[in-house]
Specification:
5-stranded parallel beta sheet; 31% helix; alpha/beta
């Protein structure tokens, strides 16, 4: 069928009309979709006590991971420390509002923290006092201050843009923090010791070297039992811990010698415990009971890292799940109470190890095979804020994530709990 010129023009006009109608109908749908994305562009999301020890050798090489991806059983600390997004230094700095002032966080206002820590990205500023006319890129809250009343008040007083990041920082166990009911999709990033956190903030971080030379093996011939004349010690001032740690120690004392220092015991160090007590541990004791005040997942504090591992004392641990210790500890560096039926069984094993220097030194074979690193907490926050591919995250149910079923188990043993 052939069309004359007039018919062709008519068909063209009808086609153009239909096309324009379709486009006009699509525009409102596009704006609605974009608006909804900006309103709800959140993805449910399943420390800083370190000394400034830097890498002394190459750590184990592995494929670089997504710094935002939560990998079961792992953390992204090393990847985040090395993350270095290329930015335009002429841009204004990212402003991080630190609730209750930077002095309470042991830092200084401005860029000082990022310069002193030699961060990959230094174009960030810490701010103490909010200015109503300022828009901040991030706000940081300690877990103890983060509760429904405080946050609701801040919602009324503070402008919050979709790009602003609210960060919950926490080093205490869930048992020592308030309830977070009603804070769904309020917190964007978590910065805690939990290995599922956005920015994992442990009390310390050990990483293995990628190779160990024979000279290192010879160097590690030290006898860590030499000169140690006493068995066990514990520093404890919280006498009512939920896991009944003091009761366990008192039962253990029926079968072996354990010296209890602090408010809950009858032993004291001199007036400078930060130095003299640690010196005493290194010199005199074979075991340090690094018993936490709560049995909670990943809750492993300075009792383990600083008091024991860094002082060449063999830690006997109670607190986090055995798998949590294996995840963060140097291999073969600790004894977990859950490997034993009870205090009497544990005491029999400790007495056996204490009587045999060869057995005792097996727990120190990790020495010189890795290093403790500076996790560069503030540096990681700054560089991640500058990530051009930064995803929008939020914790869909903060209270469930922080203290849900199986996170803390009171005085129970982990092997008696049905974990999900």
């Amino acid at each position: 069928m052939k069309f004359n010129k007039l018919q062709k023009q008519f068909i063209f006009l009808i086609g153009l009309f239909l096309f324009l109608t379709l486009v006009l109908n699509m525009i409102p749908l596009y704006h609605e979709a974009t608006s909804n994305l900006l309103k709800s562009a959140t993805i449910p999301l399943a420390t800083v006590r370190t000394n400034h020890t830097y890498f002394t050798r190459n750590v184990v090489k592995r494929e670089r991971r997504d710094i935002w991806k939560v990998v079961p059983g792992e953390d992204s600390i090393v990847d985040q420390v090395s993350f270095n997004p290329k930015i335009n230094s002429d841009l204004p700095p990212m402003k991080i509002l630190v609730e209750h002032g930077v002095s309470g966080w042991g830092q200084q206002e401005g860029k000082t923290t990022f310069i002193e820590h030699d961060c990959n990205v230094k174009n960030c500023e810490l701010v103490s006092n909010p200015n109503p006319s300022e828009i901040y890129d991030a706000r940081m809250f300690k877990e103890i201050d983060l509760n429904s009343y405080l946050v609701k008040s801040m919602f009324k007083e503070t402008m919050r843009t979709p790009e602003q990041v609210w960060i919950m920082f926490g080093l205490e166990s869930p048992e020592a923090s308030p309830n977070y009911e009603g804070l769904d999709n309020v917190i964007n990033w978590t910065a805690t010791y939990r290995h599922q956190s956005t920015i994992v903030t442990p009390y310390d971080k050990w990483v293995p070297f990628d190779s160990i030379s024979s000279s290192v093996a010879q160097k590690n011939s030290k006898n860590y039992a030499e000169g140690k004349t006493k068995l066990g010690a514990i520093f404890v001032s919280n006498c009512g811990a939920s896991n009944n740690r003091l009761e366990y120690i008192k039962e253990l004392k029926k079968y072996m010698s354990v010296d209890i220092f602090g408010y809950c015991g009858d032993m004291e160090c001199n007036k400078n415990p930060q130095n003299s007590c640690f010196e005493m541990l290194r010199r005199d004791y074979k075991f340090y009971f690094a018993f936490e005040n709560a049995n909670c997942r990943d809750y492993i504090t300075e009792k383990f890292f600083m008091n024991a591992l860094r002082n060449d004392v063999l830690p006997v641990v109670m607190g986090a799940h055995p798998d949590d210790y294996k995840r963060v500890a140097p291999p073969g560096s600790f004894i977990h109470i859950e490997n034993f039926k009870g205090p009497e069984d544990l005491a029999k094993y400790l007495l056996k190890v204490a009587a045999d220097d060869t057995e005792y030194n097996k727990y120190f074979q990790w020495k010189e095979t890795g290093t403790f690193i500076d996790t560069k907490f503030w540096c990681r926050i700054c560089s991640m804020l500058w990530d051009p591919n930064r995803p929008r995250l939020s914790v869909s149910n903060l209270n469930e994530w922080w203290r849900g079923e199986g996170i803390c188990i009171g005085p129970k043993r982990w092997d008696s709990v049905d974990l999900k």
